[in-house]
What does this fold into?
Amino acid sequence: MLFQFIRRLSTSPLTRVRHPKLRRSTHYATLTDKDVNFFENLLPRGSVITNPDDCAPYNIDWIKTCQGQSQLVLRPKTVKEVQAILRYCHEHQLAVCPQSGNTGLAGGSVPVFDEIVLSFTSMNSIGDFDENSGVLTTDAGCILQTLDTHVRKFGHTMPIDLGAKGSCLIGGNVATNAGGLRVVRFGSLRSAVLGLEIVLADGSLLDCLTSLRKDNTGVDLKQPFIGSEGILGVITRVALACPLAMPGVGLGFFACSSFEQILSTMRLARRICGETLSAVEFLDESTYNLSLKNLKRAQSPIEPNKFYILIETMSSTEEHAKATLEKLANTALDKEFVTDGTLAQDLTQYQDLWAIRERVPEALVADGYVFKYDFSLPPSRMYKLVEETQQRMKPFSNVRNVTGFGHLGDQNLHLNITVKNGYSDEIKHELEPWLYEWVAKERGSVSAEHGLGLHKSKYLQLNKGEQSLVLMKQMKKMFDPKCILNPYKVLPYQID
Amino acid sequence: MAIRILVGVKRAIDYAVKIQVKSDKSGVVTEGVKHSMNPFDEIAVEEAIRLKEKKVAQEVIAISCGPPQCQETLRTALALGADRAIHVEVAGKDYETLQPLAISKLIAAVAKKENVDLVLLGKLAIDDDSNQTGQMVAGLLSWPQAVFASKVDIKDKKAEVMREIDGGSETIRVKLPAVITADLRLNQPRFANL
It folds into this structure.
């Protein structure tokens, strides 16, 4: 069974092989036939997966950096089923890996060893949408894009948008406090979460599922669960405030000769587009070229240059969205901040230009094994890190590309290094902890939006002080005393 | 001797929009819905601009018939490289009942007045799928027509056009002035650069 896995997914060895220092805790029980029988009796047919081939996709993450060895995948449909599952696992000390859309980028969504996968893909009934408050109450297992299509019928939109929207589930989005492309406009996901229904590690229900904009009564218990990556409790239902969908949309894609010009364009966009600004993204030359190659676009839509910036506007009227963008384009050209650009003339061009940015992650995966980093940094220092990394990677012949791109409007850099011939320990040690220490020196964040998962938990102390760590561990102990939820991740793992 | 081209552009509901039927079933919802240049007209404009870049054409005039919003569409044509734009204003009730025959008469009249050598249109508009205007303009002007063009070569006041037909393609030669309508594979339209 083991060797079948390795042969089929040769670019990613088992997590336990890649991280030999990580040891499966003896604290957890091993799955027995008795346990499997219990779940088969509890859940309807199709909700219990034990066949190794069928378990395989649940054991490996989207970017192929982690592979676990779970032998049991459970897919409950109702909250009561989730409660019964956790109650049993709690009693029998079975470790559980809660899994949403499995699109996470920090290795937090798949088992490390043989944790039972608790998948939410079947828990997908879209609940109610209240037209007066704009609040959607829904199951955690609904696909983000499906929810967006649903609320658009009422003239609203989901408060987040990310490239993974066709696969990610809202529960996972909330558990990671997903960022995405429109934080500039809608703020963080956290600000849109009005209520949560949570099942705790022992199977008990924590009902914070109100759909009220304002509720200052006592301590807001749902807050720690947002962004907790499944270590405090499992989210089963979500109440989200959905903003109005704006009918008028404009998109500008511009090329600049330097990162300073990119920043000047961004500042100009903020002033000129004002309240219509809805997205600010940037790409460097190598990201842009890789993306065009992946999209099979022979021709660049604009005159190529070293950097590219994407500005989107949204307004209640088409005229206004287009007007502010046109003014920006003309002013940026006059001041020579940009060397070329294009404004989307129709929806197809809008989607085509966005695809250049949205589909970068798949372009990187197509280029080789990806070392993926996600940092918050002061914008003036952001590209310096990419340049220094490029220098550092020069002596390595198997490094293909060092790319920088990201949510410029949120000071969020995505730094990715693509490597041929699969994962390399040598490259990993050249990058880490150097990158994280560089970011920590700038007082940036070691993980802006991707979360800590498995890969970054050991760098948490570079970002948060002693006292924070102590309190986080205390909270974990309080909510999950037996430590069965998503072990080995997020908080720095201590070997038994 | 470089030719002069008249390109027809129609403002239609955007190709990527999900069409909704009005609740009284009298038509489709157009209010507040994204409109843009008919995709086949984009291809026609692109071809005209390429002919200008090749110095085969010296002037490209864009024309659109409809309400004031058509000026947006004409502005797009200008941004893509057209030299002039003519807006034939047809508004309100008249626009609702505007049919290909009337549009053909308008385009034919302008083609004669502007003394152009070539009328380039999209093969059809995606809102009505009529596929009539190009053919009728040729008929009204008594000009040759080469419709569903997937390749156009112009030399010495003659056009060699490969056109899409049932069962494949055929190549014909027409003398200018003529009417050519653009099919999907004629070219890949460019983005309008600043």
Observations:
- The beta strands of chain B are 3-8, 11-13, 35-37, 57-66, 84-89, 118-122, 145-155, 158-165, 168-175, 178-182.
- Chain B has one domain: 3-182.
- Residues 64 and 87 of chain B are 5 Å apart (CA to CA).
